[in-house]
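Worked example

This section walks through a single chain of length 199. The input is the sequence exactly as stored; nothing has been trimmed or padded.
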Amino acid sequence: MTAQLVGSNEPLQYDRMSQLDELLLAARQGDRSSVDKLLALTYDDLHELARSRLRRSAKITVLDTTALVHECYLRLSRLQKLDAESQSHFFGYAAHVMRSIVVDLVRKRAADRRQGSGQEVTLNTDVADPAQSEQADILRVHEALEELALIDARLVQVVEMRYFAGLTEAQIALALGVTERTVRRDWQKARLLLHVALR
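Given that input, the structure is written out below as tokens.
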């Protein structure tokens, strides 16, 4: 029998899923070598997750998929312990890390432009810089998610797991310990609140 993991086109054997569960348990208990093994075992899945993430911000980032996975790997490997209770929770957390990497890059680029000695000027005022517009959109979405977290942190987790990590409602429900109906309700509520915040 086989099952499918997030972002993977290849079915996973249950023994691999069992191995992931064992590594997650050891990582939660502070076993640093388990985090490295977990990241190595899920590298292809993280790569697919990064590809999905970069599709949403391809024009504004100099990161390629591999660079985003490696930066995510570095951030996760620096943790003293990894508090992911399930595979879905782990991939949701990885999606959160990847989102923060992209946001950090956008902020750094904006700061670099502000501190630059010269200012870019275009002679044609009808021409807008689409990269700057997309960077602003990424920051607006990030800020809206930060505001949403103050209202209900679980809504942000649902958005990250569904939109950024591509998890199913069943996987999100399992990761958060709620019903699929609750996930659907949270997703609708989060979309409505984000739509209002982004007007």
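What to look for: The first strand starts at residue 2 and ends at 4.
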